Amino acid sequence: MLGVRCSTRVCYVVRCVTMTSPYFMPSRSGISPPGDQDAVCGPAASLRSKLTNNRRNVEPDSSGAVKEVKEEQEEARISEQRPSSAPLSPGGCHPKTEADTLPLSSQSRRRRQLKVEYEEDEGVPAVKTELWEPPDWKKQLGYIREMRSGRDAPVDKMGAEKCYDTEAPAHVRRFQVLVSLMLSSQTKDQVTAAAMQKLRAHGCTVEKILTTDDETLGKLIYPVGFWRTKVKYLKLTSALLQKEFGGDVPDSVEGLVRLPGVGPKMAHLAMDIAWDQVSGIGVDTHVHRISNRLGWLKKPTKTPEETRRALEEWLPRDLWSEINWLLVGFGQQVCLPVNPLCSACLNQHSCPSAHKPSPPKRPKAGPPRSPKPEPKQEVAVKQERTKKEPRPTPVSPAAQRRRPRSLKS
Ligand code: SF4
What we know:
Elements: H1 10-20, H2 37-40, H3 43-57, H4 63-81, H5 98-101, H6 104-113, H7 137-147, H8 154-158, H9 170-184, H10 189-202, H11 206-211, H12 214-221, H13 227-244, H14 253-256, H15 264-275, H16 285-294, H17 304-314, H18 320-333, H19 376-385, H20 397-401
Helix pairs in contact: 3-4, 9-10, 9-15, 12-13, 16-17, 16-18
Bound molecules: iron/sulfur cluster.
């Protein structure tokens, strides 16, 4: 049996060896599971499997037996490589392919010509890394900086950063920043600054606000816009600060927007001024209007909060703090809400809204007509609009004409 070398007789030899040789494992019986290639792919593969198994089981000192197994293994390898003239066994596996019938030299050539190509993953969309940004924003921002270089807009002298007592303890300074921001809503900086001066002289601390009656507080902050509502909010906010924040201003946007009368714009500005942390862009009516006029938003927005989100998508974060100060002053001096001074603006050649007529003035608010839900602050302010409110002394037309209408160099 050991003398057998003919490859065509390997199957027969293997069956004999399986039955008799001590070097072989007992053959498996029953139906081979699908996918068991050794069981279904013909005698050569079956032999290879058995040889492999037996090589593991063979005694280390039986060198003659090992040699015999190696020789048979070699036989099996050669029989696999040779083009077989014999047909596949009835239980053979796959039909012969073109490659099976080619001589070895041709197969080698064919293998060398194989080109490996990887399928594109069509299910996963390509990740877009490019972010949208307005085409001329850097140049326009540079011009706005130039126009604001005088730092002579009302916000520069009377903004929330200028309204607190610099000698007061840190938590009191933070509270005063918050109060000035609350008063500044729908109110000119000059009016806010005057109210803050009176309030500070009275005592602008959480404790003092809580012990001051509503009427006195109203007189102190009058004539800021919606002063009645603001009196209410000041009281509620002071109470919440004392109860939940140890008398200090919260150091997070989430905490700040919990305070009555404080929305996202105020919260981001308070974080910036009181805590020196940039959490978002403070978008007021000026920032909202100018961003839309300059085309700094992918599509026009309707509310300051929408504008904030759209700006934050593309504007580099290191400009978030500066942009509020720049645009508020620019809106107070040049890009006015009505009749902007486009002929004095350095951006008139790139601004899509330059020299366009102002939109018609909004009609004065009457009783609420829309059933749509609104933010809590706006609801309260609208309710107050319907009440009769004492007005500040009107500015005479002559005084209005004296107002500077062009940039100072
Ligand atoms: S050109 Fe006119 S609308 Fe445009 S930014 Fe300047 S002032 Fe505003």
